[in-house]
Write a structure and sequence with these properties.
Layout: E1 72-76, H1 86-100, E2 108-112, H2 119-131, E3 137-140, H3 145-154, E4 160-163, E5 174-177, H4 181-195, E6 200-208, H5 210-226, E7 231-239, H6 249-261, E8 266-270, H7 275-285, E9 288-293, E10 309-315, H8 317-329, E11 347-349, H9 358-372
Parallel strand pairs: 1-2, 1-3, 3-4, 4-5, 6-7, 6-8, 8-9, 9-10
Antiparallel strand pairs: 10-11
Helix pairs in contact: 1-8, 2-3, 4-5, 4-9, 6-7
């Protein structure tokens, strides 16, 4: 194992957070670049931070890599390729390996999880890929952790990776691909605070587990750093143990509508394919939405809602999957970063659609640099 980081899946019940009353400010102030009309209210913000300086580093080395001999297996989470979010980001990493380092498409195989499947289903899926000689095998999602540990023990000569997973005392042929989701979520929280006119901002989580709470925690901190008096309301679609919260757009729509009814005019989701419902609710109410994982403004499966998507928190699963495949091809797994964070562009934010003006970007980049330099520590658990 390369590092220790826990992704427990025990349920931690949460209620809606931070019922502090929002505070309107004069629309003429230059502190709020929300771009609304001259009569629009907005969140009272702190002073704009100093401009960013310095650069982040890339997680890739740029070395020549030949992946033509690899036979890759991908076990997707619920929703599979086409979820316009988490799985699609992983798929993009595989596609990049095909286009950039010579992996042969015919030597790859993709299998996807189903709603409410048993642990035996995960074991069967991974065992099938290993028995067919797939190497490496990438498990997409923390739900595969236990199954991957078991199958990796049965196939010690096969390399495995788990996106978002971690287990103590696991076989050494498993690589854990972890992210600083809270850091990217902080950045889109900054954007939400600057764009909101009602000063009420919403968060929809797919499943109430510590991993998704990292998104919520960073988002809350970003909002509150910029607009301390903002009101944040949140809702989880399902509790721990019920992973359908990542694949139920109608329930995502209901959850988002509930937050919008409480006054939220910007809603951020970390809910996988259920995010399509969040976007639908935002469009129906003519409010703003923030996507997750992939640049959802450019995702064809949510194209009907792109006009309300102001940004997405980029969780670069594509980068991690591509870098992992490249590392296997070069036999250099030790060269992977211990966590894909802002320093290695493992998380970030999108600017597609032209809704992030230069003023807003200046705020975000300044806070990004402070996080990279360690001046701001982003929390991994919600404040309440």
């Amino acid at each position: 194992m390369r590092f220790k980081r826990g992704v427990a899946v025990a349920a931690i019940a949460l209620t809606s957070v931070l019922s502090v009353v929002g505070c309107a400010k004069d629309s003429g102030s230059s502190d709020n670049p929300s771009g609304g009309d001259s009569n629009a209210a907005g969140c009272k913000t702190v002073d704009k931070p100093a401009a960013a300086s310095g650069e982040t580093t890339s997680s890739t080395s740029g070395a020549t890599v030949d992946g033509s001999a690899l036979k890759i297996g991908i076990a997707f989470d619920i929703g599979g390729r086409g979820d316009a979010s988490f799985n699609d980001s992983a798929a993009a990493g595989l596609d990049k390996a095909i286009s950039d380092i010579g992996v042969k498409k015919e030597n790859t195989k993709e299998l996807a999880a189903t709603d409410q499947e048993s642990e035996d289903s995960k074991l069967t899926r991974l065992r099938q890929l290993a028995t067919e000689g797939r190497n490496p095998i990438v498990s997409v999602g923390f739900a595969y952790t236990d199954a991957t540990v078991k199958i990796a023990g049965e196939f010690p000569n096969t390399q495995f990776a788990v996106v978002d997973g971690f287990a103590e005392n696991a076989p050494k042929n498993i690589t854990w691909l972890g992210f600083a989701e809270q850091e990217g979520s902080f950045l889109v929280g900054v954007i939400a605070a600057l764009k909101s006119k009602s000063c009420t901002i919403g968060f929809v989580g797919g499943v109430n587990v510590p991993l998704i709470q990292k998104f919520q925690a960073g988002f809350e901190q970003g909002v509150k750093t910029v607009a301390p008096d903002a009101k944040i309301v949140s809702k989880y679609i399902t509790e721990a143990g019920d992973l359908t919260g990542f694949a139920d757009p109608p329930k995502g729509q209901v959850a988002a509508k509930g937050l919008i009814d409480q006054g939220a005019d910007v809603v951020y989701h970390a809910a996988g394919a259920s995010g399509k419902g969040v976007f639908a609710a935002a469009k129906d109410a003519n409010v703003m939405a923030i996507g997750v994982d992939s640049d959802q403004y450019n995702q064809k499966t949510v194209a009907d809602y792109k006009d309300v998507i102001i940004t997405s928190m980029l969780k670069r699963v594509d980068v991690a999957v591509f870098d992992y495949i490249s590392a296997v091809a070069t036999n250099n797994l030790a060269g992977l970063p211990p966590v894909f964070d802002l320093k290695v562009d493992g998380v970030g934010y999108s600017t597609s659609g032209g809704k992030i003006d230069d003023e807003t970007k200046g705020w975000v980049e300044a806070y990004k640099q402070q996080i990279v330099e360690g001046k701001i520590k982003v929390e991994t658990t919600p404040s309440s």
